[in-house]
Amino acid sequence: MRNWRAAAGLGLALMAAPMAQAHQAVAFPSPYEAGTIVISQSARKLYLVTGPESAIAYPVAVAKRGKEWSGYARVDGKYVAPAWSPPDSVKRDHPELPDVIPGGSPHNPMGARAITLDRDEVAIHGTTMAMRASVGTAASYGCIRMLNEDVIDLYDRVSVGAPVIMTR
Question: Global pTM?
Fold first, then answer.
């Protein structure tokens, strides 16, 4: 009986503990205005600037070798559970992919949200369960891949028109 009570007490304590989150508030001195997204390819982090000395940092998957990009972009759209059509570059490497994967499908690499950029076929988006382990690596065709829980958080914080800066 004593072990049951101890286990029940531990279970209640764990339920009361806050859920761990991959994103975190960090010191981030920068010249950028609040609301700017800064992506570091080398750190494999996306930073949402929240003030002159602070940001929210998220782990991301960045473009694999040969698919990298750098410079400035802007957020030009926000989508919930978007459908995905593989770009030609992906279709060449994976001809077995269908022409469209519906939004909400567990096989849709866009995941829960997509934040599109004003660059050709580039988005900040979620991922599938099978691809979660790629976050923190260089794995994409140019997009920025996030954990679904993180892209939902970012989606709720960012506005269409927000600047995006990709650094090496």
Answer: 0.84
